[in-house]
Specification:
heterodimer, A: 14 helices, 31% helix, globular, B: alpha+beta
Chain lengths: 396, 87
């Protein structure tokens, strides 16, 4: 759920009967624990798996003042930190102003970038700032694997950014990798790159969201690779995962972190035009809770929107609730089910017991319509790099 | 290990957010999030800095002596993760 700091580093608890945190979190909190805030749909890259189908800026994107007002609201709600992304957030000309404003208002920032714009001067400026985490994305441990997903030259650009941050004395930044069929064999390579910078490695799950709707079928890890990934992660609790692989906990011991879907309960997404979605991976009208420009603003949406209130109600009965592993995997990822055309009560499409496979075959065989993301800011005429055949699905 | 005579305070870089179950605790220094899973513990943590010792805090917050060992354990964990400073 894209919030690895949710991992309970300390869960201090005097002996007394209390409900589990998972039960508490399922019912939602008065404010998110953290949230994802995408600053712009503009991006210099066209990654095949972009969860927000980014490329072109949207003319309705929040103004600088609106961004400041939103930060004020986060401060009032005690949202301790936000994950800033995009698009490429550094393309906003007020990017540094927004970072500085957040730091001055007790809202910590972790931002994700492809690194293109972290030159020596930007690295020095970033190194001088407080309350800041940086996450640089690569999806291959070398250019040959990475650039097929993220585009030519993107690996070199990311490594240059890492070099610049290291030279500027930024400290421990994060390297963020989306696990795919093409890079599972490079896990040790990613760890070696991170270690060479004193950086933290972060691995997250590929979802069939955004542009990935057309490539997920062939890009997501195989069942064998999922097992490989699970055991690799179990041996390396220092590797961050944003709690995104909780569906793998059905393989045995749980992975570290909160094993639950936090969408609309403890996390959410604010997109560049102020639309609030349940999570970064469900940019679709069905998961749109409201817009921060509406009366009541963000806090009203968080506390009162019909969508978020309904996500905090007990889950409906489905195939999974009868499964012995349900407590471990909680039925998996809502976004992944939705965009492959499954019901939310169905098993996760990557269920380690293979429970979703007959359903996926049925969806494919009948050619039934699957949902299309509500937003597509891809740049027209710009080719999308891909190591696999892009399969345009018929979509509603 | 924190003892009853220890003197402690909430780290100034740490912020508490009260919740139904207790509180979220966030350190702007270490950028780590923790959870206090009981409201009584939240009261104790908030009051630490205004008393001369942990013992005095527990007494002032009317914590039953039977529960003191578990509070000492919880406070020790919080010191180890730099959420609380031992003075």
């Amino acid at each position: 759920m894209n919030s690895e700091s949710v991992r309970p580093v300390v869960a201090a608890q005097p002996r007394a009967a209390t409900r589990s945190l998972v039960e508490e979190f399922k019912e939602g909190l008065d404010a998110p624990i953290c949230l994802t805030w995408e600053l712009t749909y503009a991006c210099n890259l066209s990654c095949v798996h972009c969860l927000s189908s980014s490329g072109r800026r949207d003319p309705r994107e929040l103004t600088t003042q609106e961004c400041y007002d939103l930060i004020d609201e986060f401060q009032r709600m005690k949202v301790f930190y936000v994950n800033i992304g995009g698009g490429e957030p550094m393309l906003r000309t007020d990017f540094f102003d927004i970072l500085e404003y957040a730091a001055a208002h007790d809202v910590g920032v972790k931002f994700s970038t492809n690194g293109t714009y972290i030159d020596e001067a930007a690295a020095a400026r970033l190194a001088s700032m407080d309350y800041l985490d940086i996450q640089i994305s690569i999806d291959g441990a070398d250019a040959s694997v990475n650039d097929l997903i993220r585009g030519e030259g993107s690996y070199a650009a990311a490594r240059r950014a890492m070099d610049n941050l290291a030279a500027a004395g930024f400290g421990a930044f994060k390297i963020s990798v989306v696990a795919t069929r093409h890079n599972i064999d490079q896990l040790d390579g990613f760890k070696a790159i991170a270690d060479s910078y004193g950086a933290q490695l972060r691995l997250t799950r590929l979802r069939p969201s955004g542009r990935a709707v057309d490539s997920w079928d062939e890009l997501h890890p195989t069942q064998e690779q999922q097992r490989q990934l699970y055991y690799w992660l179990l041996d390396r609790p220092d590797v961050l995962t944003g709690d995104s692989f909780f569906h793998l906990s059905a393989l045995g011991d749980p992975l570290p972190g909160l094993n639950l879907c936090g969408a609309g309960r403890v996390v959410c997404l604010v997109d560049p035009v102020g639309d609030v979605y349940a999570c970064p991976f469900v940019i679709h009208d069905q998961f749109l809770a409201g817009n921060i420009r509406d009366d009541g603003g963000f806090s009203h949406i968080w506390r009162n929107s019909d969508l978020f209130v309904s996500l905090r109600e007990p889950e409906s009965e489905g195939a999974c609730t009868a499964c012995e592993m349900y407590d471990a995997c909680q039925g998996g990822c809502m976004a992944s089910k939705f965009f492959v055309g499954l019901e939310l009560t169905d098993p996760d499409p990557e269920c380690v017991k293979g429970a979703a496979e007959p359903l996926l075959e049925k969806v494919g065989a009948t050619g039934s319509l699957v949902p299309r993301p509500s937003v597509d800011r891809s740049r027209p005429g710009v080719p999308v790099p891909s190591p696999v055949r892009l399969r345009k699905r018929q979509r509603v | 290990m924190i003892e009853l005579d220890s003197r402690c305070e909430l780290n100034p870089a740490v912020s508490l957010r009260p919740e139904r179950f207790g509180a979220l605790v966030y350190s702007f220094d270490t950028r780590r999030l923790s959870f206090l899973k009981h409201r009584d513990l939240v009261r104790v943590v908030e009051a630490l800095g205004t008393h001369e010792s942990v013992r005095e805090t527990l007494e002032a917050e009317s914590i039953d002596t039977e529960r003191w060992p578990s509070f000492l354990n919880a406070l020790t964990t919080l010191v180890e993760s730099e959420m609380i400073n031992e003075l």
